[in-house]
């Protein structure tokens, strides 16, 4: 599977490596213990945890449900409430369904969700479980 730039950046952000943003680069300042943007400003993430631990291992994206979705309405609400970050759980059971068998649809769904969040200015940390 070819990962999009947004998913690649989310994976990089999750491993604390500098990652590209639309206005420059993030960098890790280990001495000051901060993340800086391309204009050398401190970056402050304000976000939520999104982990769906049962099959299909990803929240619903088509219809709003207060407990199980992360659809357009949810994302718009996150933006309206001032959030700019999501910690997205990616379950290994969803990635590798049997030895050496990888679920391309699940990976594509994760990729699409990360891109949808990114389009609204929400950064994603991929947290693999």
Q: Could you say which structural class the secondary elements and strand pairing correspond to?
A: alpha/beta
Report, as a whole number of angstroms, the end-to-end distance.
20 Å
Helix content: 25-40%
Low-confidence stretches: 11-21
What spatial form do the alpha-carbon principal axes imply?
globular
Molecular structure report:
The protein has 129 residues and is of the alpha/beta class. Residues 11-21 have low confidence and may be disordered. The protein has helices at 5-14, 72-80, 92-95, 104-119; strands at 20-21, 24-25, 27-29, 34-36, 47-50, 85-90, 96-98, 101-102, 123-128. It is globular. The chain contains 4 helices and 9 strands. The strands form 4 sheets. The chain has a 3-stranded parallel sheet.
Secondary structure blueprint with pairings:
Layout lengths: L4 H10 L5 E2 L2 E2 L1 E3 L4 E3 L10 E4 L21 H9 L4 E6 L1 H4 E3 L2 E2 L1 H16 L3 E6 L1
Parallel strand pairs: 5-6, 6-9
Antiparallel strand pairs: 1-2, 3-4, 7-8
